[in-house]
Design a protein that fits this description.
66 residues, mainly alpha, 3 helices
Length: 66
């Protein structure tokens, strides 16, 4: 459910479409045990992308306040 809620935000935030596609793959494969390891790797990558995006947005907010 969480990944489903995140997907529309990727386009709004300007995150590369490849990341959005990865999120969709995670969503589709979330219940498949045979892809659990690959899903885990993709999820960790997605978390890193989101964390980097947050840092960039925080820096942009600081720049806007100047």
């Amino acid at each position: 459910m969480a990944i489903h809620k995140l997907i529309p935000s990727f386009t709004i935030m300007g995150i590369h479409p490849e990341i959005e596609n990865m999120a969709k793959e995670i969503q589709e494969n979330a219940h498949t045990i045979s892809t659990a390891e690959e899903t885990h790797k993709k999820t960790l990558h997605l978390i890193n992308v989101c964390a980097q995006t947050c840092k960039e947005l925080e820096q942009e907010l600081i720049n806007l306040k100047k």
